[in-house]
Amino acid sequence: MQQMDDPPSLPVGTEVSAKYKGAFCEAKVSKVVRNIKVKVAYKQGLGSGIVSDDAIKAPTGQLRVGAVVEVRHPDRKELVEATITKIQDCSQYTVVFDDGDITTLRRTGSNQWKLIAMRLGFTPCTVSVMNLVKQAYKKFLQPYGDFIRKLGCSC
Questions:
Q1: Bridge partners for 104 per DSSP
Q2: Measuring CA to CA, which residue among 108, 72, 64 is closest to residue 89?
Q3: Helix/strand number for the chain, H first, E second
Q4: Pick from 24, 29, 81, 104: most CB atoms within 10 A?
Q5: 64 near 87, Cβ under 8 Å?
Q6: Residue 87: count of CB within 10 angstroms of its CB
Q7: Nearest Cα to 105, choosing from 120, 116, 121, 89?
Q8: Exposure string (b/e) for 94-131, b if CB count within 10 Å is 16 or more?
Q9: Cα separation of 23 and 101, whole Å?
Q10: Which SUPFAM superfamilies match (predicted)?
Q11: Which contacts (CB < 8 Å, 24+ apart) does range 134-141 have?
Q12: pLDDT in tens, the chain (155 residues)
């Protein structure tokens, strides 16, 4: 599940931390096969459903949880008003690691940082706490990992 400030999908060029060969390593997105699934609650008592983001009519940048949008209803085949209740990125990302390795992965969101923060004892685990954990990693642990890789070790 996406955090409130996360984009529905990551653009090419985004720097990410990806799990590869058992460890998290820094990488850059080089290709995206976009596949966004959106759960919506239809207005007018039409229930709820899961649709692709291309079935949603919304202003650019407005695809987020809680937004009221127009959605092509699967039975009525017309646009109806609905509220977005969940967004899931099922896209496939091809990433290039710092050492040149290339692999294709799926996005797990920022749950990695939430899990780390909770294991460190930070409760409640808010977005700001997750950002602090991520910043601490980049400031202290990532340089150590870079040092280890320069010695000839890899993730």
A1: 94
A2: 108
A3: 3, 9
A4: 29
A5: yes
A6: 22
A7: 89
A8: ebebeeeeeeebebeebebbbebbeeeeeeebeeebbe
A9: 14
A10: ARID-like, Tudor/PWWP/MBT
A11: 137/17
A12: 444 456 788 889 988 877 777 677 788 999 999 888 989 999 888 888 899 888 888 777 778 888 899 998 878 778 899 999 988 888 899 999 888 889 888 876 556 677 777 778 877 767 677 777 777 777 777 676 676 666 766 54
Check residue 55 and report its DSSP letter: G
Place of tokens 């390593």: 25
* Global confidence as pTM: 0.61
Measured at the CA of 125, the angle between CA 122 and CA 127, to 5 degrees, comes to: 130
CATH class of 36-88: mainly beta
Write the single-letter amino acid at 45: G
